[in-house]
Design goal:
By secondary structure, this protein is an alpha+beta fold. It contains nine helices and 20 strands. It has three domains: about 1-25 and about 50-55, no CATH class; about 60-160, Aldehyde Oxidoreductase, domain 3 (Alpha-Beta Complex); about 170-310, Molybdenum Cofactor Biosythetic Enzyme, Chain A (3-Layer(aba) Sandwich). Helix content is about 25%, strand content about 30%. It has a six-stranded mixed sheet, with helices on both faces. The N and C termini lie far apart (about 60 Å).
Length: about 325
């Protein structure tokens, strides 16, 4: 592609690079100049315009964006795409879920021709129906066919949506005298609802190992959430010990996300057990949201995954925290 100013005698069929105001209305950039457009320019007293001129082997911006978008979501479900316009295509979630990205492939695409770009939400970002997942933008009016071909090959199946696979959960709340009681139930139910899952059972028990163990054993849903009346401060504290007493195991205690440090993750047979931090009583984003979204959408969460959440894991301060990280002066 070549770019520059030409006389109207040589502008036919080329792309208008800058919008031009006429006596009435305007010609917008990106327009392929036809005879009517050139006549309108002459009538306005304009004799020269800046254009982009495609050469052999160039692919226009909309065709390039179309091809790249189709490659990125080649085998995806739960995603839809917009029509190409000015070299841009948006990928949009058709349902709730979490983004699953081939990060290395996307780096390769964005590390090639700088005119070919893909911007996405973060890996495993929670999405609602209608949320933007990615935008493909061809910056110039055309790109070389060879560069586009490489990008399309690298991009194949790099963006998908993991949709909810767990439909219901049990919430076990342990109560202490003067504690929060069922406070937070609504916030937790809203989190599940946003992922098309239901809170099918809520059990309130005393904050003792035996009572929690019995409740965990009796829970029948594939996902069990435990919210304790007293913060869980050690892997041998009441709630993790209750899980072990039930025949389960703790796979991770603590996470490098704040708020959300005091989360634990475990399993009992085929059930996933998530010990929620106290901040889960608030609707504000916390580390438990990241684990919960992945779990409901069938994305494996390992102890290494949780450890990797520390980079970017310093979240917005919750006003109700008893010990704010930034004390007032």
């Amino acid at each position: 592609m070549t770019f520059g100013e030409v006389s109207l005698d040589h502008a036919l069929g080329h792309i208008l690079a800058h919008s031009v105001a006429l006596g009435e209305g305007r010609l917008r950039k990106g327009l392929v100049l036809d005879r009517d457009a050139i006549a309108a320019l002459r009538t306005a007293g304009i004799e020269r315009v800046t254009v982009a001129m495609l050469e052999e082997g160039d692919v226009d911006e909309n065709t390039a964006a179309d091809q790249l978008a189709d490659a990125l979501m080649a085998q995806s479900t739960g995603l839809r795409r917009s029509s190409a316009f000015t070299g841009r295509v948006n990928l949009i979630a058709d349902s709730a879920g979490v983004a699953v990205l081939d990060v290395d492939a996307l780096h390769a695409v964005n590390g090639g021709d700088p005119m070919i770009t893909v911007a996405t939400v973060p890996q495993h970002h929670q999405l609602r129906a209608g949320d933007l997942v990615a935008t493909i933008k061809i910056i110039s009016y055309a790109v070389p066919e060879a560069a586009l071909g490489r990008a399309v090959t690298q991009a194949r199946n790099a963006i998908s949506l993991a949709q909810p696979v767990l439909t219901d959960a049990t919430l076990i709340i342990s109560d202490i005298q003067g504690g929060a009681g069922e406070k937070g139930r609504d916030a937790i139910e809203a989190r599940l609802s946003a992922l098309d899952a239901a809170l099918s059972d809520v059990v309130v028990v005393p904050h003792t190992q035996d009572a929690l163990s019995a409740a965990i054993t009796q829970a029948a849903t594939p996902l069990v959430l435990v919210l304790t009346g007293s913060a869980t401060s050690d892997i041998n504290d009441v709630a993790p010990a209750a899980l072990v007493q039930s025949g389960g195991r703790v796979t991770r205690f603590g996470m490098p996300v704040d708020p959300g440090n005091l989360l634990f993750l475990g399993a009992l047979g085929g059930q996933m057990i998530i010990g929620l931090p106290g901040c889960a009583r608030s609707p504000a984003l916390n580390g438990a949201d990241w684990v919960l979204a992945r779990a409901i959408c069938g994305v494996e969460v390992t102890t290494q995954d949780i450890g990797a959440m520390g980079v970017g894991g310093l979240l917005k301060e919750i006003p109700t925290r008893p010990q704010p990280r930034r004390p007032k002066i």
